[in-house]
Fold these 2 entries.
Entry 1:
Amino acid sequence: MQQPALGILIGGSSHVGKSTLARALASSLGRELISTDDLGRHPGRPWPSVRPQVAEYYASLTDETIHWFLKVHHENMWPRIRQIIESRLKHAQPFVLEGAALRPEYMAQFEQEDILPLFLYADDAFLRRRMLEESRRADADGTKAAIIDKFIERSIRENREMLEAAGTADIRCIDVAAPGTLDALVKEFSAA
């Protein structure tokens, strides 16, 4: 098996395991780990506590506006992300970059021999269950529960739309709901 690409990009919606896989791959391969979360903040998940501006964001905007704003946020981040990728490639610095802002349509812009784009996804029920548990939705009051529900629906919609885009862009899609998938990926790349 040949050495993995210089840059490994891991995209996907919230709660699909991007950070977990990226940490494991970076550690196993001895690569720099970069997260798009460190580059810019979107209102994000409304737990464990809800900041007032995050509560206002989810409570006052429509689902369509929340979805639109997320896509605009990712679009605004892309020039900086692209700059990071190009710099690492120019200096031949192996890296793993993960984040929801790595939308399939952006990852597809790179040459396949230098960059390996991966898209993590799961079915709606798996993602919903994972987010309900982590957010402790069952313990939330009415207002917080409604905000959590909006975040979950936004994330599931993103998962569906980005999965379709990844398929169109011929990006390798990994179903994280299948047991052992992330461990198998780490072994696959570590054996290279």
Note: The chain has one domain: 7-190.
Entry 2:
Amino acid sequence: MAGRRGAAALAAGLALALAGCGGSTVSGGDSGSSDDGAPVKIGFLVPKSGVYASIGSDLERGMQIYLDKHGGKLGGREINLVTVDEGSTPQVGTAAARRLVQQERVAAVTGIVNSATAVGVATVFSDAKTPVVSTGQVTDNPYWWRVGWTNPMMNASIVDYLVSKEKDKNVYLIGADYKQGRDIIDAIGAGLKAGGVAIAGTTFTPFGTTQDYQPYLSEIQKSKATAVYAFYAGAEAARFVTQYSQFGLNKQATLYGNQALTEGNLAAQGPAASGVLTNAIYTPRIDSPLNKEFVDAYVAKYNAQPSVYSEAQYASAAVLDKAIAAAGGEVTGESLNTALSQVGDIETPRGTWRFDAAQAPTQTIYLRRATDNGGVMSDEVVETLGVYTSEGEKS
């Protein structure tokens, strides 16, 4: 479909470039080396402060569920998990990354939420030959393995749907003003235009500091848009969706977004989120024995449903589990990276997948609707959008 190809093409053109970080890092492949049978040191870089702190909590929970299931081990080896704060800026994340490779000398790293931080830390780890297993949006780096989703697959799948459902309507685009926000909104806009959908307007709001969205909501109202695509995550998503409903826009324009818009925020958003449509790689409603086991363990431990982020970190642990076992003997960054290229099928709560040539999964994408089930909000599956490659092609 033309809309999808337009989104995928622009997303590829806007792929995150690796940025040099300066400063010295550990050279060679011996950082974090562990002798046969010795504990393996893994860095866990997650936001414990700032706008993405709630997502960081979900990552920590997903990681813990996997470790609980495997007796605290990965690949049959004891794990020394070194957790550091990613913060909410690349500067904080880069300082933490340098600590992991220079002082802690970890064998591998997982976590990382903010795309700008991911770009900022990428060469810190690749220079040290330390592999990263993460949802972070970094491409063209032989030491970076993406386990969650990619911008092209997410953009293409929702563009395909919007082109089919909103082609004769006006769609307004709004998102946070930082690299990830602009990349996604620009790609969605290009895909919609290529598919013949009219854009009612585009707005970027100050990242991490916007508390009152009313001025921006007023512009959406004036545009007469009948659908809105919003890119927000964490606390920003909670505020935006709540104020969108309070302003009454939910009665004028259907609100769409990717999984970040409601993921981990439904409790805070409450009934205000009702009817919001998102595309996602995971839902606790997936009917499989492994997913049921994961959801049951998560609910029992945290009295909450697992999120996309929780599942993605669980998947990261599953990948590291297979890679560490395959590396055997002395585990180093280089031996782990070689093992990561050979892990094959990965069984996770979302389903079975394997890394493609771009070191990211090809997987099923779902369309979900936020629904009030007797006072408990949940993202219910509306339909399966299809199987998309990491480059945004529907397979």
Note: The longest helix spans residues 308-327.
